[in-house]
């Protein structure tokens, strides 16, 4: 199987580390180029909830045409239970610009594996967990063949469960995705989007994303990507601390002094790795 973790990148940033994932309605072909030119780490053309059912066939054709003409993006396809899923998958087989698919409303490992296999195992699948059942099955979904990263459909999850948007109420499903991703040996999960253009609120919610261990976030406007990228990235001061700690550890002959050294060393190395990937200097 292709090592998707190493081969998928945009702006030089591997999709496994991608912070901002920009959703673009699949029936707005006039916005595809603008999205591709944005600072978002990854772009997702959405032919699921963003498109009226009657307009889905035309949107699917527009997406395939753009991807076949030099464009590169992920595509959010309709969920496995719908009549649209099979047509979406069949239309995307072998399309040259297809980076991968985001599978809407994933609720079982079978949904992921069947999607992956129907695409001939050529592109990865990001399962979008949007319901109580999806969250409950997060571990088995994370272990499914073809699963690349988990993503959280926070709006539909709230609709399904009656949960409010309060950070405390939403901490449980987010933490489930973080734990499931670790158990499934996947990169950190992708958080749901923040609606609106208020950057202080977006910054606050992105900080909550980071604090719970998620490492990416869906966004609905190109202008949101810069804020998300900044908040999810290590700061220059983080990098300075990491380099100082690693240098001190080496200078003392890599001797472990106490039980806090190894966790701090792991954090320092992670910060240094992310700083290199995101081109951040001290």
UniProtKB/TrEMBL annotation:
Pfam families: HpcH_HpaI
PANTHER family: CITRATE LYASE SUBUNIT BETA, LYASE BETA SUBUNIT, PUTATIVE (AFU_ORTHOLOGUE AFUA_4G13030)-RELATED
Keyword terms of this UniProt record: Lyase, Magnesium, Metal-binding
Superkingdom classification of source: Bacteria
Annotated protein name in UniProt: CoA ester lyase
Binding site for Mg(2+): 130, 156
InterPro entries associated with the record: Aldolase/citrate-lyase_domain, Citrate_lyase_beta/mcl1/mcl2, Pyrv/PenolPyrv_kinase-like_dom, Pyrv_kinase-like_dom_sf
Phylogenetic lineage: Bacteria, Bacillati, Actinomycetota, Actinomycetes, Micrococcales
Organism from which the protein derives: Subtercola lobariae
Cofactor requirements of the protein: Mg(2+)
């Amino acid at each position: 199987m292709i090592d998707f973790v190493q081969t998928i990148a945009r702006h030089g940033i591997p999709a496994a580390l991608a912070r901002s994932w920009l959703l673009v309605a699949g029936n707005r072909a006039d916005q595809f180029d603008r999205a591709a030119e944005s600072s978002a780490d990854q772009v997702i053309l959405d032919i699921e909830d963003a498109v009226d059912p009657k307009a889905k066939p035309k949107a699917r054709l527009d997406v395939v045409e753009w991807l076949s003409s030099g464009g590169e993006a992920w595509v959010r396809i309709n969920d496995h239970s719908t009549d649209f899923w099979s047509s979406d998958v069949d239309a995307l087989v072998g399309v040259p610009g297809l980076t991968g698919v985001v599978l809407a409303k994933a609720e079982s490992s079978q949904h992921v594996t069947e999607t992956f296999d129907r695409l001939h195992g050529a592109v990865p699948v990001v399962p979008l967990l949007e319901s109580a059942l999806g969250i409950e099955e997060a571990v088995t979904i994370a272990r499914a063949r073809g699963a690349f990263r988990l993503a959280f459909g926070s709006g539909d999850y709230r609709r399904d469960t009656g949960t409010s948007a309060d950070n405390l109420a939403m901490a449980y499903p987010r933490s489930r995705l973080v734990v499931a991703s670790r158990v499934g040996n996947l990169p950190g999960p992708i958080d749901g989007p923040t609606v609106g253009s208020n950057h202080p609120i977006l910054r606050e919610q992105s900080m909550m994303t980071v604090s719970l261990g998620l490492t990416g976030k869906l966004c609905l406007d190109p202008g949101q990507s810069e804020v998300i990228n900044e908040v999810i990235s290590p700061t220059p001061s983080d990098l300075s601390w990491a380099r100082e700690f690693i240098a001190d550890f080496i200078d003392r002959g890599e001797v472990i002094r106490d039980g806090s050294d190894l966790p701090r060393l792991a954090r320092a190395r992670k910060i240094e790795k992310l700083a290199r990937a995101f081109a951040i200097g001290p």
